[in-house]
């Protein structure tokens, strides 16, 4: 059994979400958000980390590492698990960050996803965004929506991922998965190609550049359901981030287009639970209605929080209201509620009432 297999097997037994391998330290695993040393393994030397990289990467991937200084990939070890992996150079050596990918797509119930989010699988067209910081579970939420589509209706689903995380079997739907860097050279090119592949649903792993955002909006305009992620917290920040990518002379047109195709923005954070061991997910939910479309068109995205606060009966909720509910139900501590709040001062005042 190889050293990396031993490391990843132990991390799996402990329930870790990530494993870090770098020179000068024993491996470390992230358990419920905390980094913990795996002290029964020795400190890594440069030859050790290079040997692991050689083991997990093929020749083409090693060439990419040499060319770019880092490389994203996925790989699996039979009987151990599947991983999303970033290999990168640092101080003349190589380091690695392994992210565990669940072997089965967790159910929406087990993930604590609100029903209003789960029901997005019934949408036939438009743009649905899942946002949050790295490691907040965005990919898992999207995977659960794709899984619901796959199990409930006949559709052609194309996923564009960097790298592929969850894998799907064809059920009621056809699910074709393309890995950026392996099956296509960029999100933008893969997305343009997807429009010629008769899709019903397109999953774009991440929208981070002008061309990808513009093409995704066009795809939604032409009658497809487009699902994607953005590294933001909150609906207002998400809308602003997408608009700000474009030059100022294009921004009003993009506001109009985005307002017409957007169906929902889901923001999520994983917060340490009050038991001090696990983590719980907080979800902000914005369902797009005529009021939301008007605010986006008029450049008043800062008022979206008011729409969420006044439309709770429609399944909407702001991030801070979701966090406050978790605090009042004793799922999280006061300290954690304030730490993850978007407006901690206002939350602190509400706690005193």
Descriptive report:
The protein is α/β, with parallel strands linked by helices. The protein has helices at residues 3-14, 46-56, 59-68, 108-111, 115-118, 138-152, 187-194, 210-221, 235-244, 248-261, 290-297, 304-310, 319-328, 334-340, 344-351, and strands spanning 18-21, 28-31, 34-37, 70-77, 81-90, 93-101, 126-131, 156-161, 174-179, 201-204, 225-230, 262-272, 279-287. The strands form two sheets. The chain has a seven-stranded mixed beta sheet with strand order 9-8-10-11-7-12-13, sandwiched between helices. The termini are far apart. The model has no long low-confidence stretch (mean pLDDT 95).
**Residues in helices, as a percent range:** 25-40%
Q: Main sheet?
A: 7 strands, mixed
H-E order: HEEEHHEEEHHEHEEHEHEHHEEHHHHH
Mean pLDDT: 95
Q: CATH class of the largest domain, anyone?
A: Alpha Beta
Q: State the low-pLDDT regions, or none.
A: none
**Strands side by side in the biggest sheet:** 9-8-10-11-7-12-13
| Anisotropy-based shape | globular
Please write out the topology.
Layout: H1 3-14, E1 18-21, E2 28-31, E3 34-37, H2 46-56, H3 59-68, E4 70-77, E5 81-90, E6 93-101, H4 108-111, H5 115-118, E7 126-131, H6 138-152, E8 156-161, E9 174-179, H7 187-194, E10 201-204, H8 210-221, E11 225-230, H9 235-244, H10 248-261, E12 262-272, E13 279-287, H11 290-297, H12 304-310, H13 319-328, H14 334-340, H15 344-351
Parallel strand pairs: 7-11, 7-12, 8-9, 8-10, 10-11
Antiparallel strand pairs: 1-2, 1-6, 2-3, 4-5, 5-6, 12-13
Helix pairs in contact: 7-8, 8-10, 10-11, 14-15
């Amino acid at each position: 059994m190889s050293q990396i297999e031993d490391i990843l097997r132990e991390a799996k037994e402990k329930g870790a979400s990530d494993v870090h391998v770098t020179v000068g330290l024993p491996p470390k695993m992230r358990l419920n958000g905390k980094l913990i040393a795996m002290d029964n393994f020795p400190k890594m030397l440069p030859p050790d980390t290079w040997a692991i990289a050689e083991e997990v990467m093929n020749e083409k991937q090693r060439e990419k590492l040499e060319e770019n200084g880092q490389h994203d990939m996925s790989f699996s070890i039979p009987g151990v698990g599947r991983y999303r992996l970033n290999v990168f150079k640092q101080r003349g050596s190589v380091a690695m960050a392994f992210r565990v990918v669940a072997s089965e797509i967790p159910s929406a119930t087990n993930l604590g996803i609100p029903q209003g989010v789960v029901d997005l699988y019934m949408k036939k067209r438009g743009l649905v965004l899942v946002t949050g910081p790295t490691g907040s579970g965005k990919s898992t939420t999207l995977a659960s929506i794709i899984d619901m589509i796959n199990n409930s209706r006949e559709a052609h689903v194309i996923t564009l991922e960097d790298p592929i995380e969850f894998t799907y079997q064809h059920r009621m739907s056809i699910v074709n998965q393309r890995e950026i860097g392996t099956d296509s050279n960029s999100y933008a090119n893969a997305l343009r190609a997807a429009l010629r592949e008769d899709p019903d649903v397109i999953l774009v792993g991440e929208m981070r550049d002008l061309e990808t955002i513009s093409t995704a909006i066009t795809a939604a305009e032409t009658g497809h359901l487009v699902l994607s992620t953005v590294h933001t917290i909150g609906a207002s920040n998400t809308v602003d981030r997408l608009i700000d990518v474009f030059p100022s002379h294009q921004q009003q047109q993009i506001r109009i287009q985005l307002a017409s195709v957007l169906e929902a923005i889901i923001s999520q954070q994983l917060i340490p639970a009050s038991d001090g061991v696990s983590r719980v997910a907080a979800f902000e939910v914005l369902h797009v209605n005529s009021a939301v479309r008007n605010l986006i068109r008029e450049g008043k995205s800062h008022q979206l929080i008011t729409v969420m606060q006044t439309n709770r009966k429609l399944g909407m909720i702001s991030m801070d209201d979701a966090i406050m509910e978790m605090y009042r139900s004793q799922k999280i501590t006061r300290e954690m509620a304030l730490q993850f709040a978007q407006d901690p001062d206002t939350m602190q005042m509400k706690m005193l009432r």
